[in-house]
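Appendix B. One record, verbatim.
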Amino acid sequence: MIGACADLDDAGFWSIECWGGATYDACIRYLNEDPWQRLRTFKSLMPKTPLQMLLRGQNLLGYRHYDDEVVERFCRKSVENGIGVFRIFDALNDLRNIETSVRAVRMAGGHAQGTISYTVSPIHTTALFVDQARRLQDMGIDSICIKDMAALIKPQAAFDLVRGIKDACGEDLRVHLHAHATTGVTLVSLMKAVEAGVDCVDTAISSMSLGPGHNPTESFIEMLDGTGYGTRVNQEKILRVKEHFMSVLGRYAEYQSKVTGVETEIFRSQIPGGMLSNMESQLRQQGAGDRMKEVLEEIPLVRRDTGYVPLVTPSSQIVGTQAVLNVLMGRYAVLTGEFADLMLGYYGEVPGEKNPEVVELARSHAKKEPITCRPADLLKPEWQKLRSEALALGGCNGTDEDVLTFSMFPQVAPKFFAERHEGPRNLGRDPLTGASETHPTEGHQGAITGPITYSVTMSGRQHKVTVTPYQ
């Protein structure tokens, strides 16, 4: 990515999303790379463009709620290390779960973008989402994002929702639309949103677009030609970005999504693109790879029982896994702990009415009572305990950043801390030789200008290769 940063920074984007979400997890779980160092590197290479991250509200980047002090410290450290824009969402659209992070981001000097997790159901209407936008505005957010994680927003719905928010909240409130490309309709949805007055849309460079990703930047810009609408993005710069990624993508073929076409059945299952491959893997491991169709039919039924939760991390994983279990073991014969917690209110308030019979099953399974309060209100102060546990680990450097890494990924962090000094690894394979690479860039603060030493494994033997980058 480093080779594309200068052109990205000069291209004229409103922001560049490059952190948060699952990227943090991937850094420490697979790449042996410090995510905070990655962020500092990006900021040093892209100083002009605000860097953006995805934040799961009270969940931060982990998979549980954290107490308010942990949330506040994470937001403050993220600003200090280079994040300018925080796209803050809650999987259930329970706004109580984002209040603390919105307040903390604004206190730290960041841009707090309140997010609507878009979904389609019998209870989700334009009016419901517009009301959520009003409440986000009352909370003090700096802008609003409509986050369509499963490519569900159809063109007319996009127009109606953007126009509805602008009419209710005022033309001055920035509205962004984030839509994936998986269903094949959302490039048109972006255009209809533009006609309705949207201020910004999310795209990806063409060589990294489509499938479960986003619509192509270049295609969107060309689509505006002759419409009276324009963008300040420099096409010459992004052409170089496209060519850069085309030149390196071959090394990562084994990690690229196999979903490359259009998947309109998502309009029925509503599973985001990244979940499809996860469920296929779960079924294959159980020798039931031929039962995917049954699972896709089961998901809407499970979702109805939850009160029509939007399907985005972590609710998509929770509902998807429960649907797999229902198909393999019988309906609700086995409940995951996470599904029970979802039914009992421990993730927050769901949009609709839950199936009371399934709530009773969850109560029996989890042996605890349902709650209606903000889940984080039940948490005791935990920062000092987390800090003590983190500092006891070999390789922990004692910074708040390391404590936060441990806080969110307590199972993964110990191994990462112990091996961090070895530098990043698992950077794909040479498409010609099949050789894997490791690239020691720990501590890198700027563009690479000197020789780089690779450790290359070929035919079971390791070789050191020194390469001088093209200047």
